[in-house]
Amino acid sequence: MNTRKIKAGNRSQQATEERGVVILLTGNGKGKSSSAFGMAMRCLGYGLKVGIVQFIKGKQLSGEEIFIREKHPEVFFHQMATGFTWESEDREADIAAAEEAWAQAVKLLQDSSYHLVILDELTYMLSYKYLDEETILKALRERPEQQSVVITGRGGGEALREFADTVSEIQDIKHAFRAGVKARKGVDF
Ligand code: ATP
Ligand code: MG
């Protein structure tokens, strides 16, 4: 245990690069979007600029959305307007909505004043082939050097995993929902 701690310490001491990173939070377990919003909170603590694009419009208004819109209007917040929800059946409308949301993301990815860009549930746009993988990777590659990007969602494909600097896969061990517990305000949305 002690040896392990020392080793981890040494590794971080060797880190010398100062640049933004791409973080992919994936897997079937709960905790991807809430972790991304946790990083937004960290940035806000330091007065750093944050931009958020949500690629899926949840059925439920989320606490994060209320908090940002009401308490932090300086945060750029865009939610995919109409179109794709979990039950959508209109592919053309979904693609149009995805492209419109992506256009907002591109603006953030070209603006070096944003310290952190969150692309929440972006992976589904790749799995459903609503957005082009190479276009996304190119925009990430060409972003400002000091900008970090957090991408959340299940799946997303090998190329994105390969490209990201940090990849965490949250495992679904159990979820209260399957034991019949209703989604809770402040916990699930
Ligand atoms: P959170 O926003 O809570 O961090 P997430 O981003 O990891 O969750 P999503 O797939 O985006 O997960 O789903 C969001 C909603 O679905 C949340 O209300 C969450 O509690 C719920 N959820 C996430 N994973 C599971 C699961 N494995 N089983 C049931 N419900 C889940
Ligand atoms: Mg999520």
From TrEMBL:
Catalytic activity: 2 cob(II)yrinate a,c diamide + reduced [electron-transfer flavoprotein] + 2 ATP = 2 adenosylcob(III)yrinate a,c-diamide + 2 triphosphate + oxidized [electron-transfer flavoprotein] + 3 H(+); 2 cob(II)alamin + reduced [electron-transfer flavoprotein] + 2 ATP = 2 adenosylcob(III)alamin + 2 triphosphate + oxidized [electron-transfer flavoprotein] + 3 H(+)
Listed Pfam families: CobA_CobO_BtuR
Listed pathway(s): Cofactor biosynthesis; adenosylcobalamin biosynthesis; adenosylcobalamin from cob(II)yrinate a,c-diamide: step 2/7
Molecular function GO terms recorded: ATP binding; corrinoid adenosyltransferase activity
Superkingdom in the source lineage: Bacteria
Keywords attached to this entry: Transferase
Enzyme Commission identifier(s): 2.5.1.17
Gene3D superfamilies cross-referenced by the UniProt entry: P-loop containing nucleotide triphosphate hydrolases
InterPro entries: CblAdoTrfase_CobA (IPR003724), P-loop_NTPase (IPR027417)
Biological process terms in GO annotation: cobalamin biosynthetic process
Primary role: Required for both de novo synthesis of the corrin ring for the assimilation of exogenous corrinoids. Participates in the adenosylation of a variety of incomplete and complete corrinoids.
Family affiliation: Belongs to the Cob(I)alamin adenosyltransferase family.
Designated name of the protein: corrinoid adenosyltransferase
